[in-house]
Amino acid sequence: MTEVKSYVRSLERSRISMTRKDRPRVFTMRGFEWDLLDGVFAPVYSPSTEVGLDFLEQYRVPFGGSLLEMGCGAGLAAVLAAKYGCANVVASDINPNAVLNTALNAERHGVADRLRAVHSDVFLGLDPEQRFDTIFWSSNYVYGPEDYEYGSLHERAYVDAGYRAHRDFLEQAPSWLTENGTALLHFSSRGDLGELERLAGSLGRRLRTVADRDVIEDEYGFDSVRHLLLEVRRAD
């Protein structure tokens, strides 16, 4: 396993992010201030949130449509989508603090009337009748051992043990879309793209790269990391 793909190193990043003395209660990103609660992924310590937001802008998530942001964390993508025109936004996370954090940021930015934050493990906590024009997940793309037992919910934002969450997303996401909807997965070269493609094939899914970017993650000593926006489609 390379250093960049090391799940052990990613778990250490999780621990550092939770305990560093400069962890803010409020931070600025995209020209707005955001609340950050304890136990929630901190966008200020990783470029992935900014890259994911750039990808969504590049892909032009439809104004007036519906969006599901999975693994919402502090809720930036969901809140900005609602702020800039999505009429119906659902933000979900397995971490209850992240759900509360997203609701706080929706209130802060005046979009609570069209954004609902939901506690959900992948799709389990969602309204089974709801469908979305766009589903977006900036995933925990580092692969962890199948038998790894998480020490905290915060670790789940960094590592996916056995790619169980990725399997569920690949299998279920197309079924939650409107007729012309799109499921988008933000992945990176720090993850195991080969395993992801193998999983997709085994589930009758096809991955199409719709955007990519190389990013230097120098705060943690990484060289260039390639970030990918993948569209998940049925193979037939």
**Helical fraction:** 25-40%
CATH topology, what is it called?
Answer: Rossmann fold
Fourth CATH level, the homologous superfamily: Vaccinia Virus protein VP39
How many individual helices? 6
CATH architecture: 3-Layer(aba) Sandwich
Top CATH class: Alpha Beta
Which regions have little confidence, pLDDT < 50, spanning 5+ residues?
Answer: none
Could you tell me the strand content as a percent range? 25-35%
**Biggest β-sheet: strands ordered side by side in the sheet:** 5-4-3-6-9-11-10
Which structural class do you get from the secondary structure elements? Answer: alpha/beta
| DSSP E strands, number | 11
Largest sheet: 7 strands, mixed
Q: Could you give a short description of this structure?
A:
This protein is of the alpha/beta class and 236 residues long. It has 6 helices and 11 strands.
Topology overview:
Layout: H1 7-19, E1 26-29, E2 32-35, H2 48-59, E3 66-70, H3 76-83, E4 88-93, H4 96-108, E5 115-119, E6 132-138, E7 142-144, E8 159-161, H5 164-172, E9 177-188, H6 193-202, E10 205-216, E11 224-234
Parallel strand pairs: 3-4, 3-6, 4-5, 6-9, 7-8
Antiparallel strand pairs: 1-2, 9-11, 10-11
